[in-house]
Predict the structure.
Amino acid sequence: MSYEYARIPLKPGLNIICGPNGSGKSSLLLAISVALGQAYTERSRKLSDLIRWGEDSARVTLVFDNTPNRGKRPVPRFDVDYFRISRYLKKDGAYWFEVNFKTVNKREVTSILNEFGINPDNMLIIMHQRMMEEFGITTLVQRLTMVEEAVGLGAYRQNVLEAQDKLTQVLSQEESVKTLFENAEQTLDYWKEEYEKYQKRNEFLQRRVFLERELIWAELAKQEDLLNSWQEKVEQKEASLADIEQEVARTQALIQQIGRDLNTLRFEQRQSFYSLMALEKEKTEHQVTAKIGSVTLNKIGEILDLKGQPDAYAVKETLDALDGYAVKLHAQIALSQTVLKDLDVKTSTLHSQLAAFDEERTLVEQQYVDKRVREGLLRFQSEAASKELNYLKGELRRALRDVEAFQPRLKAAGVPMKAVRSPQEISDDIRVASIHLSTIGELSEEIEQMYLTYLNVFNDLKQKVEVVSENRASVLNEVAERKRIWISIIQSLLDEVSVPYQEFLSQIYATGNIRLVNTQDIETMGLELTVGFKGAEPAILDAYTQSGGERSTATMTFLLALQQYVKSPFRAVDEFDIHMDPKNRETISNLLYKEVRGNLETQYLTITPGQITNVDEAVHVITIQNLEGRSEVSVVE
């Protein structure tokens, strides 16, 4: 907060921190509380707000005197004369504890403080600023609880609470046993009826188990039949595909042979055609020769017919020569005609051959086309058969996997069963059995045992009721005895505390008392303080009856009266003299000094903004000053 660094030595007896308001006095007690893990932070809702402005972190370290006292250290787990508890705070909200420079959690810190007897959350041990007023409005139950814890009597309350818990359990048990006893016969009838249904249910369950086994073997048989069917289809299709492939091979061979025959036929037809062309050419030549010869002979005849004419005598020699040429030409024509007849026969023969070739070629070509079509059809059939074969093989593999998938089920199916019914018939019977089971409903497997158990319970209930009743009486006595002891000890303590409380009040001209209220109920039993000033009748200490100064005076008087019974070796109170008039402040201060002088083994810490008077060697004064925003500590020797 306002401390950059400070080291505050605290001594046995009374340590008084004084200084003007705002100097940082209360911050010291707050720092101690934070280091002890107390939840109360007074001025801040967040621990990070306690960090000095402009800094990222803060640290508080408490140094404890752990030297042996009467041969035993206050905290035996630490074999050192001094040990330290530190708490670190970070601006991001993180914090952690260290004990002797080793990181620990808050639970461990609380455990260590319990060995000292310190509970920083009990305002009777550490009372912060404004807690003096808060004590006046604290409930009576909370006051009593704080007193019990401060003086170490909390175990007695715990004993009573444990006995009451035990009584509650016994009463609950008694009520349960009586209820069971009253309903035992009805419950037994219920379990008997359930047991009969359980037996029927077992019959149907056994029937269904048998049917389920039968169904497994029937489904397996069906799957195996399907597997065999697919296997047979695959084999048939493979044989069919082999036949098709063989026929394709044969057809391809025939196509090749027909192709060769067709090529030969085409060659021979071409040869015959060429021969016919040659004959036709020769025939044409002889026809032309014969025709030209005939024409020439006709002309020569006309010329020869002129021999008898007188005017033709001059050409007689020429005509004679033509007559000789005509004879030769006639012979040539006769030869050409003879040759033409022979050529007609040959061309006629070749025409017949070509016609035969055409007919044969047409037939062979048709055969070739038919075989090629057949080959195409066979290839199509082969591809279709291959696809179908692949499909059949896929179904065969799937069927084989389905059969293999049955193997785990067969282990639970038991001895093989011959399938005499279809899976559908068996499934119908399973549904019938399941319907019967559903009408019966879910039943516990322990019904038979429950039936026998409740039969025995019914016979034992009377004896248990008697035992529980005896237990109830015993626990009631135990609760009453523990409560009596607890109230007796608390009352004895308060009687003892009342003496100094009344004595201290008398020194400030007041009267009062301390008493228990609601002693019949542990949950509402509390501690009531009464006080009356200046001759007034004592009234309950609360926020409405007394003034602030009167509440502070009465509260401090009660704390002083309680001090010799408090177990904690460290106690602190901030502004104990708040609202007190000078007379009461002086009286309470003197009482405080007197109490400290009688108990130098305890360390007290008080904070006051007022002046310190009448101090002696048992008082250790620490003054706080705020200089330019920094709090500084000065020890008065």
Remarks:
- The chain has a mean pLDDT of 82.
- The radius of gyration is 67 Å.
